[in-house]
Amino acid sequence: MTFSIAGVCRETGQFGTAISSSSICVASRCPFIAPGKGAVLTQNVTNPELGQLGVRLLQEGLDAEGVLARLVENEAYPEWRQLQVLDAAGRSAVHSGAQTLGIHATRQGRDCVAGGNMLADSGVIDAMVAAFESCDAELAERLLAAMDAGLAAGGEMGPVHSAGLKVTDRARWPVVDLRVDWHVAPLSELRMIWETYLPQRDAYVLRAVCPDDSPSYGVPGDER
């Protein structure tokens, strides 16, 4: 019930994920990022604890294959899980258990990894990776381009309702963490939110690290 992608930008050190699903609130339980270390996507019949464990293992220095092996080893029901792991070197590892739903696929690309289940066509994932690899914009744009390509290639077998975009940079928190929890066109809505947020993104980081130099919020009551 999900298609997703994780990617890294070697120039900036950013890691990010983008995801969409026919289920509600997909971004609350499937994408996990360890800033500067990598990303984990846990989906199909989702166990969010696998994402949390994967982040800890990436932070401990395990590579993608090592993290995936530990996740599968520690999961009581690996046959129900679909996992993608991306590490700091851009290496990836994937797992689709025997009970992965419907048409499903994973694809390991250059500095990215993508996967999905209940797909309209297995070529959806190929289209996502191709779009990511051919886009030369910043990481968030590359991830959104991949999602748009996946949707254009058929997306899920049924309509999608939720989506999310998450990117970490030099800060220890996600500098981009945008969600659409329920919408008739969640990826279009997600892009609108991203385009609205982008001009303000750096100001929110500055407010955290250097509030004396931060710009005003431009709202009533803020007279700086």
UniProtKB/TrEMBL annotation:
Keywords assigned: Hydrolase
SUPFAM superfamilies assigned to the protein according to its UniProt record, in alphabetical order: N-terminal nucleophile aminohydrolases (Ntn hydrolases) (SSF56235)
One Pfam family here: DUF1028
Superkingdom of the organism of origin: Bacteria
Transmembrane parts of this sequence: none
Gene Ontology molecular function terms on file: hydrolase activity
InterPro entries to which the protein is assigned, alphabetical: DUF1028, Ntn_hydrolases_N
Protein name from the UniProt record: Putative Ntn-hydrolase superfamily protein
Origin species: Halomonas organivorans
